[in-house]
Amino acid sequence: MWTWGGAAVCGAALLAAGLAPVTTYAQSPDTLRFSIVVPDSARPGEAVPIALRLTNPGVRPMDLYLTGRSITFDIIIARPDGEVVWRRLQHVATQQILQVKHLAPGETLELTDRWHQRTDAGAPLTPGDYVVTGVIPTDREPLRTTARLRIMSRR
Amino acid sequence: MSRPSTAIRFLAGAALLAVAACSDSTSPTNREPLPVVRTVQPPDLGTLARAVPGFGGLFLDNGVPTVYLTDVSKRGPAERALSGFAQSRGFSPGEIRVLQGWYAYGDLDRWSQAVSFEAFDQGGVVFVDLDEASNRVLVGVERGASHANITSLAARLGVPAEAIVTRDVDPIQYAATLQDQVRPVVAGVQIHFGNFLCSIGFNAVSGGQNSFVTASHCTNTQGGVEGTQYFQSLSSQPNSFIGTEVADPVYVRGRKGTACPKSRRCRFSDASRAAYAAGVPFTLGGIAQTSGPNNGSLTITGTFNVTSEGDAVVGDIVNKVGRTTGWTQGVVTNTCVNTGVSGSNIVQLCQTFVSAGVGGGDSGSDVFGLTGGNSVRLLGILWGGNGAGTQFVYSPITNVEQELGPLTTF
User: Fold this and answer.
1) Which of A44, A110, B23, B303 is most buried, by the most CB atoms less than 10 A from its CB?
2) Does residue B399 surpass a pLDDT of 70?
3) CA–CA min distance A99, chain B (Å)
4) What residue segments make up the domains of chain B, in order of their start?
């Protein structure tokens, strides 16, 4: 039996105090701006806040076709060689409803969650560099963007 | 009738004009060697009509160049005028087939234009064609439309009754996609409610009520009836309202002695039923068909027909058609799985997993197995998928009917 696979926290403030956020951007063809915000580093075992931000930088409203009543988004943590160690939507069944999300000019949609530095199997991770990928499914190609994160060594 | 020579009327006229000018059998002095028109382009029929006495039409009969002549003994001009065309198709002029024609091309052309000018005022006319392959004017009318009107029109226009043929045909429509407005409504097409999009699972009759079934979470509130109003394909389109939610059992909380886990809400199907609004045409048992499985196409090319219902076992190959990823097909990997729904406290009991593509908007889709030709066995309603879009989850039809009541689906 599959069990419920973790809660999405949508729209909540998340950035951990004392950690400078790193923001990277992916530009979609229709000028929608998709960014991921993560700290540049985290102490071992510390929950890592991650935010995906969709911004309409234009002067006209946009309709986004996004999946789920609560908007579905994925976060993938991988080693630099591509080995995936954790995936937010791993072993999770999501409803395949499509939501038409209206984004006003200048408006930002923020989707947030925390990664507890565990693998999909629940094992703690070793210090080092990791690639954090944010994915937002749409009714076409998913939006995707990445950032880097360093898990520091214990002292 | 197919039009093997539609393009014939429009192409290569100039080359044939040169040929025709030299091909009048009544003027031996003009009989110079004909230039060989080695072209794959078919000749212009109007030009042929002027060059070949009694010419009544040109077409390929199983690949063989074939002409109608009102006087079959005069094939010489036809052979000369069509030698290049015949050779470009691999035939010598002598192999051109000549059929007895009853009407000259010029007359047929004049009659077809006259009929066309007025016929479309009659209800149900689909096309008017100078049919080169039958040496007649062919009028296509929608099934059920009057043939007598066309017969009367032809008589009034002075067209011989034997020169016009009327045939029942299907209406010709723009190629529609699963996201377009489709009538009669079939399963697999997009529905719109609130600010959400889903797909229709299947049409059904329940207690005499014409209905369609989609996912329970494709209602205003998952579980419980709120009278969700549905549009196909978008509410912004005219005449798009198709029906209202009428059945959607509530989710029940888990307690000891039941299958539902503690602190969760459960049902055996993510399915709801909506009643069609009066006058909305739908096809019972119809599921939109695209050009093939797993090719990404959303263009509707035909219709699957539900002819049975059933259950799947692990290893079965099953299909779905939905508005986002179209027709996808894959293998059943797990059956009767109690499945937690991400972002909620809902557990869907005894669901089926399939290794096949899915995307947002496919919720509510039909799931079915192919049983031969266009016949399919209805298996259930798709509601979920994994994050990668490579696996979908559906509620088996047995569970759906257990919760919505008996449904006539074909």
Assistant:
1) B23
2) yes
3) 5
4) 15-36+174-404
